[in-house]
Amino acid sequence: MATIGYHCSHEQFAPSTLLGLARAAEAAGFGGAMCSDHFHPWTNRQGQSGFAWSWLGAALQATRLTFGVVNAPGQRYHPAIIAQAAATLSEMFPGRFWMALGSGQALNEHITGTPWPPKKERQARLKEAVGVIRALFAGEEVDHNPLGQDGYVRAHKAKLYSRPAQPPRIIGAAVSAETAEWVGSWADGMITVVKPYDELKEVVEAFRRGGGEGKPMLLQAQTCYAADEEDARRDAFDQWRANTLDSRILVELEMPEDFEHAARDLRPEDLDGHIRISSDLGQHAAWLQEDLALGFDEIYVHQVGRDQEGFLRAFGEHVLPRLGLPR
Q1: Which of 23, 94, 165, 254 is the most exposed place for a label (fewest CB within 10 A)?
Q2: pLDDT grade for 1, boundaries at 50, 70 and 90
Q3: What is the secondary structure of 54-98 as a DSSP string?
C-alpha cells in the first residue's frame, strides 16, 4: 500500500518546533515522515539545522509514524557510526526506520577540513561505505582497507553488538537518471526529488533499468501550498529558490551565503517544475496521483513555505482523502 508522508525540514525549523509538526502530521493523517540531515541550512533565510539523529529518537518515540533520513556517510560521518545509529533506532523501534544514503553536498561535508572529492570518487566512497554498513548489520567484524591499501573508507575490527532483528532498508538517493541507474544496482530502493514529469519518468526508468525493477521508489515532493496563489509563490521563492539550482551546483557550494549569491538572478517563475506551487488543493491531489501512477510507493510532501500548520490542516482535510489511501 502506498504511503503519503511528511518531510521534516531541519534547515527551516528548530528541532522542538519540528517535533510538534511531526505530531501534527500524524494527526492530520500522513502515514510516515522523513527528514534531512544537514550541518548547515541551504540559506540563512531558512535559519536552522538541528542534529537529525538526536531528533529521530524523539520523533519515533513521540509518534507512531515510520521515519527515514537522508544521510551521506564517508566524510562527516564514519559509516560505522551511521550503522550503529541506524541499528539502535531500528532495535528500539522495529520496522519503523529507514535511511537513504547519498554522496552528499560540500555544504555539510566541508566542515571536516578534508578535500571535497569529485563525483566519481564520492560515489566510490559511498559504495564502500554501504558495504561496511551492510556487513556491520550482518554482525560481522569488519576490517576494511587496512592502512597501505587503496580505498576511501577504513574500518578496523568494528563490530555492532546492539543490532535489530531486521536491519533497516538502505535506500539510494538519486537526482539524475545516470545516478538512478547506478543506485538500482546496489540499493534496496531509490529516493529522488520532484522535477518535470518527463525528467522524473526518465529517472524512474533508469532506476529500473539499472537493477531497481520491483524495488520500492520514494519521492521527496517539494511543494508550496497557500490559500492565495501569490502567497504560495512568494513563500516558495523566499525559502527554497536556491534549491532549484542545477544539482551540479548544489553539491559544490560550501556556505549558505554561496547559495544566496548563486540564486541572486532567479525569478519566481524559474521555480516551476521544481516546486509544486498552487493554491488549488485539487491540483496538489492530481500531482500526487500522477506520482502514484508513475510507480512511486512512498511520497513525502515537503511544504517549503513557512506555514506548516495551514498546510497540514488543508492536506489532511482535502488532499489525503482524495487519494483513497487508508489514514
Answers
A1: 165
A2: confident
A3: HHHHHHHHH-S-EEEEEE-BTTTB-HHHHHHHHHHHHHHSTT-EE
